Amino acid sequence: MGVTSISLTTKGITNTGKGVNGSFFLYENVNNAAEFIGEVRLLGTLNPQTNIFEGSIVDAAATNIEIGTFRGALYGPGREQLGLVFQFSRAQENGKIYVGWMLAPRI
């Protein structure tokens, strides 16, 4: 299995109290064309003392079955940005494991 090029398009990540929720679209580069793979959702909690958040990644198309995890932190002036690392697998569909990182504005 080789390295697969993927791109993520965020639909937004929100911080509501102690919860962190969001979703993003996953695209795979197939023959130099972006092929839509699916939508995944982030469901987690924020520790307000450390600004660290973590939680589960669920497959939006498979009735929210948990497929991975994420961990990240708020940063920047006024903690208006967030960064996270993630790993998940869509083994039921293609057997691939995805790992990566994401930076996004806090909404």
Please outline what is shown here.
With 107 residues, this protein is an all-beta fold. The chain has no helices and 7 strands.
- The SSE order reads EEEEEEE
Q: Quick one: overall form?
A: globular
Low-confidence stretches: 1-10
* Tally of discrete structural domains: 1
Tally the helices. 0
Structure class = mainly beta
Radius of gyration: 14 Å
Strand content: over 45%
Mean pLDDT score: 75
**Portion of residues within helices:** under 10%
Give the strand order, joined by hyphens, for the main sheet: 1-2-3-4-5-6-7
Extended strand count: 7
Cα end-to-end separation: 37 Å
Largest sheet, in brief, is: 7 strands, antiparallel
Overview of the molecule:
The chain has 107 residues and is mostly beta strands. It has one domain. Helix content is 0%, strand content 70%. Strands 1-2-3-4-5-6-7 form a 7-stranded antiparallel β-sheet, with no helix packed on it.
List the helices and strands and how they pair.
Blueprint: E1 6-16, E2 19-30, E3 33-47, E4 52-59, E5 65-75, E6 81-89, E7 97-105
Antiparallel strand pairs: 1-2, 2-3, 3-4, 4-5, 5-6, 6-7
Question: Which structural traits does this protein have?
Answer:
107 residues; mainly beta; 7 strands; 0% helix; disordered N terminus
